[in-house]
Every structure is written in structure tokens, then in C-alpha cells.
From TrEMBL:
The keyword Acyltransferase applies. SUPFAM superfamilies: Acyl-CoA N-acyltransferases (Nat). The lineage of its organism: Bacteria, Bacillati, Actinomycetota, Actinomycetes, Kitasatosporales. Keywords: Acyltransferase, Transferase. It comes from Streptomyces tremellae. This is GNAT family N-acetyltransferase. Residues 8-171 form the N-acetyltransferase domain.
Amino acid sequence: MQPQPGPLTYRDATPDDVDAVVALVESAYRGESSRAGWTSEADILDGQRTDRQGVLEVVEAASSRLIVVERDGALVACCQLEERGDGAAYFGMFAVRPGLQGGGLGRRVIAEVERLAREELGAREMQMTVITVRKELIAWYERCGYRRTGAKTPFPYGDERFGLPTRDDLEFELLVKPLACGAAAGGAEAADAGAAR
């Protein structure tokens, strides 16, 4: 009989975590390793998903936190929580280790970060952007209580920091969720998410 995994721990990333976070994010979205999970963008984007400088900027930003999630001392997930003002917080850079996706870990992480946004930032709304062709991912967020707004922004074609698109119809859509007191991630599905940009 295998031992039960330990509890999840959450902490703010430090500059020493940057390389591990880059590796986690890349493994969840790019290349063959990402196909072990369901959040892969390998069919729509080549190149990098993030880089060391981009992650370091999030770690060091005054209005943003990069949260690392560990179990038994190993990095299993990460996400960005940024204060946007006017009662809004932004959720981004969400990644779950591909082999752990689909078991409810992503749902637990997003619920905890929503709690932090409410209780520590006083946020009344969580915002995120998702590539519109990621239908399965958007549906997962909708089951977690997010709604599509129809507000879209273009994909940064030509900026290799965001990857190399394999199609010409990519754009981001803003998703939002009200953060009422005592609310948690909605839905009963045990699906697991890997990313919001």
C-alpha cells in the first residue's frame, strides 16, 4: 500500500524558485511533456510559454505575487495573483504538473487563491484571460464559476516571448468571477486546470 500524499502548502515564490517555475510552466503547456496533461497548447503554439525574466518580474512586482504550491517538498503547481484595483484581482500563470492534472488539484489551488484574493486583497472579482480557441479550458473555468465577458484582446503575434503561433486566429478573452464572502470554486467536476494567462 502506497503512503497517502502530504497536504498542499502555499507560499510566495522567491528568486530561487524562478528556474523551477519556468520548467513547470513549460512542461504544462509546451512540447511533448505537456501532452501528459490536458492543458497542452502544443497544437496551437510552439516556442516558449514563459522565460526566466518574465517569471522574475512577477516575483519582484509590488502589486503581484507568484504563489508556488508544494506537496512533500516538490513543486506541483503555481499561479500569479495580482491586485488590479477597483476591487479586482488577476489570476494568471496557472500551471499544474501534467501528471497530476485531472485529479482535482487545480480546483483546490484556484479555490485557495480566490480565498487569498478575497481575504488578503479585499477583491470582489477575479479576472483572467484565456485563449479563445481553448474551449475545454474555458468550459472548465465556467464550471468553476467564471463567465465569459466577450471582451477580447489580440494575441501578441510577432513577440516570441509568448510563443510561436501555428494558426492565425488566436486572441484572449476576459473571464470574470465575483468573489462573494465564503464563495469557493464552483462545480462538482473533478477536472483539473492548468492555465490562465
